[in-house]
Write a structure and sequence with these properties.
Shape: elongated
Oligomer: single chain
Order of helices and strands: EEHEEEEEEE
Number of helices: 1
Helix content: under 10%
Strand order of the largest sheet: 4-9-5-6-7-8
Structural class: mainly beta
Mean pLDDT: 77
Largest sheet: 6 strands, antiparallel
Strand content: 35-45%
Distance between the termini: 55 Å
Low-confidence stretches: 1-11
Number of strands: 9
Radius of gyration: 25 Å
Length: 172
């Protein structure tokens, strides 16, 4: 008597596909072959709507200007859980700034600093790293900015702390 194992739903090693999103960007070009602009519209959901929109804009465009639509596809997947150590698991040494969290102790400008919050600012693509200020100092003087890819010297990782350096719960 043999025991049959159930068939996998997807081939091993491939991510599970959740859904595909499509949006459209409208670009315009001139006779010199250069394309400009990229107006993304989520209101257009079908190729027919896009074709009608492009035709309307083209009819209003100046002579020598061409209008086109570019389809943007975004696939959402679930990746398998990693089985090896991640960069965030490093407990000391140079690490990418994007791995820093509340409770990390780092070396900035030859000074040991304890992080209580890390914020990602999408508009500038940088991290705002807030460190615990010495007693009596203004917290605004101990805010540093780094690119997510900058290397920072990590001294140690610990539990999340609040602005006073005491263990606490922090959203960062």
């Amino acid at each position: 008597m043999s025991t049959m194992l159930p068939e996998p739903l997807r081939p091993a090693g491939l991510p599970e596909r959740l859904r595909d999103d499509r949006s459209y960007a409208i670009q315009w070009g001139t006779d010199d072959g250069q394309w400009h602009g990229s107006i993304v519209s989520s209101a257009m959901s079908s190729p027919d709507e896009v074709d009608a929109y492009v035709a309307d804009v083209q009819a209003l465009a100046a002579t020598g200007v061409t209008v086109r639509a570019v389809e943007i596809r975004l696939t959402h997947t679930v990746l398998p859980a990693p089985t090896t150590a991640k960069p965030a698991d490093v407990d000391h040494g140079p690490v990418a700034a994007r791995t820093l969290r509340s409770g990390c102790r780092i070396n900035l400008f030859d000074t040991d600093r304890l992080i209580y919050r890390v914020e990602y600012l999408h508009a500038g693509n940088y991290l705002r790293i807030r460190t615990v200020p010495p007693a009596g100092e203004h917290p605004g003087y101990f805010v540093f900015t780094k690119s997510p890819h900058d290397l920072v010297e990590l001294i140690s990782r610990g539990p999340a702390v609040d602005i006073t350096g005491m263990p606490g719960v922090d959203a960062s």
